[in-house]
Specification:
CATH superfamily of the largest domain: Periplasmic binding protein-like II
Shape: globular
CATH topology of the largest domain: D-Maltodextrin-Binding Protein, domain 2
Structural class: alpha/beta
Oligomer: single chain
Number of helices: 21
Largest sheet: 9 strands, mixed
Distance between the termini: 32 Å
């Protein structure tokens, strides 16, 4: 209700402004993907820096393609948007983005100063034709795909490979992310593990592989796995892990941290693994769409989002990891309870022995087994058709039982959900 009232008020303000659109900044972002208190602070900061007033209107989306459709077909005049890497690639190829200005006058350029070289290197791999993605997109948050597991029932060795999903020992206790692209990529990495080991193919080459053969191979693997999997989950699988009804989940690193934090008060151990065969990294980044009407404020917004104190607050609020490599950001998340890990790839050569959560910031040895996914273009239809065939139109009886259990348990977990952000803040508070 609070979000609805905020949106209604914002839209009413926009309608009342008429020709004053140059003082409106329309931000289109994922749900719950920033500390909303920074919005008012940005408005004040922007006026201090430029002498011009601005009012931010925040709208949210849950699916990349929904956002893209509004911009591509509806020509919505959003000023700044936060798509995922493969959508940034698609938007560049379709000429839907404007370059990001770094003309901030006397204001420091936090973008150039602090975005990690690791992020810039990956953005260089985004295929935008003659356009370099680093000129049109600035990394916001990033993470990995891996395996959430309960070590009471699953050994570290069992969770070290994507082949765990073919293990009948865990029948009815496993979940797969409701994401065709992420699932396809991890399975293909596993199926091509021997070619990878022999150097016959690279991880990046695999992320471009949308051949009929590879799709068929992944489909065969998933058909074998399907009877063992309890469900294809968007969110309910994490609660199942917390309640120990699930033991294994193919999922995102941010969800792995969230699940671990939520499970701690119940005495449920949760771990996250990076499978030995390899895995993917993902990035979400700020862009300025083609139909934006306030590009100046949009560039300042992106710069503000990279100011270290703002970065820290957004990370604490969302639980995801920033693309910002400012020393202050790392210092905020140093934790002496962890063993030292090599983060020189992200923060620079002086950071070879850092004590922090390795799920959030994987060690260099793990990152060396990663690649970023790419847009498939017209071949995306083949991927979605395969995914539809695997999942089928009818859910299994076990899936219905699990969904029913989730509904019954919803009241008991309402407090946990309400405390989601609070627990993250407590986790990272110095």
């Amino acid at each position: 209700m609070k979000k609805a009232l905020t949106l209604i008020a914002a839209l009413a303000l926009l309608c009342s402004c008429g020709a004053d659109r140059e003082h409106i900044l329309k931000v289109y972002n994922w749900s719950d993907y920033l500390d909303t208190e920074v919005i008012g602070e940005f408005e004040q900061w922007y006026e201090e820096q430029t002498g011009e007033p601005v009012k931010v209107i925040l709208q949210t989306f849950d699916i990349n393609e929904t956002m893209l459709s509004k911009i591509e077909k509806g020509q919505e005049d959003f000023d700044v948007v936060c798509p995922s890497d493969y959508i940034i690639e698609r938007m560049l190829q379709k000429d839907l983005l404007l370059p990001i200005s770094h003309d901030f006058g006397d204001t420091p350029d936090y973008i150039d100063q602090y975005i990690s070289p690791f992020v810039k290197e990956n953005f260089n791999k985004i295929e935008g034709g003659s356009k370099n993605a680093n000129d049109y997109a600035v990394g916001y948050m990033w993470g990995t795909v891996g395996i959430i597991y309960n070590p009471k029932y699953v050994s570290d060795e069992e969770a070290s490979t994507w082949n765990i999903f073919r293990n009948p020992k865990f029948e009815g206790k496993m979940f797969m992310k409701e994401d065709a692209r992420d699932v396809y990529s991890q399975v293909l990495i596993y199926l091509r593990r021997e070619e990878l080991a022999r150097g016959e193919v690279t991880m990046d080459e695999l992320m471009h592989d949308s051949s009929d053969k590879s799709i068929a191979d992944v489909e065969a693997f998933l058909e074998e796995v399907k009877p063992l999997v309890a469900g294809w989950e968007a969110d309910f699988g994490k609660d199942q892990m917390v309640q120990e009804r699930g033991w294994v989940s193919l999922n995102w690193s941010g969800d792995g941290v969230w699940t671990r934090i939520q499970a701690e008060p119940f005495g449920v151990p949760i771990k996250f693994s990076f499978p030995k065969e390899g895995f993917t990294v993902f990035f979400d980044g700020w862009v300025i769409p083609k139909y934006a009407r306030n590009t100046k404020a949009a560039s300042y917004w992106i710069n503000f989002m990279n100011r270290p104190d703002v970065v820290i607050r957004n990370v604490i609020e969302t639980g995801y990891v920033s693309c910002n490599a400012a020393p202050e950001v790392l210092e905020a998340f140093v934790d002496d309870s962890y063993d030292p890990i090599d983060l020189s790839y992200f923060f620079g050569p002086d950071y070879t022995a850092v004590r922090t959560d390795p799920v959030l910031y994987p060690d260099r040895s793990d990152i060396e087994r990663t690649a970023m996914e790419h847009d498939w273009g017209e071949r995306s239809e083949a991927l979605l058709a395969m995914w539809s065939r695997v999942k089928g139109d009818n859910a299994s009886a076990l899936t219905y039982i699990i969904i029913g259990a989730v509904i019954v348990a919803a009241a008991g977990f309402a407090l946990s959900k309400r405390n989601k952000k609070k627990s993250k803040r407590n986790k990272y508070k110095k």
